[in-house]
Write a structure and sequence with these properties.
This protein is α+β, with helices and mostly antiparallel strands. It has 4 helices and 5 strands. A hairpin with a 2-residue loop joins strand 3 and strand 4. The longest helix is centred in the last third of the chain and has 14 residues.
Length: about 120
Amino acid sequence: MYAFLMHLMSKMFGNTAKKNMEKNTTDNTISGDDWMGPDNTPSGPGVPEDWYLSYDGPAPVVEGINAPNYVVDRGSGVFPIEFYAKKWGVPEGFEEETKEALKEIAATSDHTAEPLFK
């Protein structure tokens, strides 16, 4: 009965269920390899590397460090350490690793950035 009602409602409103299922990346949806992560953040290998520039949610959960990035639970899976630390601070439990990673970044970087640790 429920399936019949859903089918009827879909037909009444222009077959929207079928149209939504047929959307692809050109219709501003995510690719087949991607998924909606926490906070409805597009996540997976097809997400642009600079996804974090437009991210406006809470601090992503840090799962590890792969300098110069934190490994996080959403987006493309990485978030630049310097950008993250300036926006949300250093995540709890990653203080020493972050300090070492930032020293490594500073040693190999050709730009002069304000140090996060003094």
